[in-house]
Specification:
Elements (H helix, E strand, L loop, with lengths): L18 H7 L3 H9 L15 H8 L2 H8 L16 H7 L6 H6 L15 H7 L3 H9 L14 H6 L4 H8 L3
Helix pairs in contact: 1-3, 3-4, 5-7
């Protein structure tokens, strides 16, 4: 009705969202499709915030939602938070394994990127016990012995885990 999708809504879930961010937060993909069909620009990235519509879509782990966001050509190389995590860091750190292939293929984001705190998406997935992300990276021939800027590697992190599935996964590297 002529409203601005970048206007702010009242506080929800302890945060203040724009209308577009609220649509992503509540995963209203049909409304995003409508905005896209009507050629309404719903991507607005604020590089001074710790989150935006793109990072929120990553955390929702919804491939349909993420594909719609990526189709709008957002800036993919922004660093979020004090650690300046990339979208791939966020996906691996949140175990958003359903959107990792989209970010990897479409965004050309990889497991080797290093954040300000030295982590790679692969070491984050290991630290966060995200077996689905780790399996994806293993299938893509990621180097689990590659060290991040902290001197840690994914395989060493996994070998220190007490979880049987993670230990078995680490053992599969021989």
């Amino acid at each position: 009705n002529g409203g601005d999708v970048h206007s702010f809504l009242p506080e929800m879930d302890g945060r203040i969202f724009t209308v577009a961010e609220g649509i992503v937060h509540f995963e209203r993909t049909s409304f995003l499709r409508y905005l896209k069909d009507e050629r309404v620009n719903f991507i607005k990235q604020d590089l001074n915030k710790d989150y935006d519509i793109v990072s929120m879509a990553v955390m929702k782990n919804n491939p349909d939602l993420m594909a719609m966001i990526l189709a709008e050509n957002p800036k993919l190389y922004h660093g979020y938070g004090k650690e300046k995590w990339s979208l791939m860091h966020l996906a691996n750190g949140q175990c958003s394994s359903k959107v990792i292939p989209l970010l990897h293929k479409t965004g050309k984001l990889n497991w080797t990127q290093k954040s300000v705190d030295g982590r790679t998406p692969l070491t984050l997935a290991s630290e966060k016990d995200c077996l689905s992300a780790l399996s994806y990276w293993k299938d893509k021939k990621a180097d689990f012995k590659a060290r991040d800027k902290r001197g840690k590697n994914a395989l060493d992190i996994l070998n220190g885990k007490k979880d049987a599935a993670l230990s078995a996964f680490a053992e599969s590297f021989g």
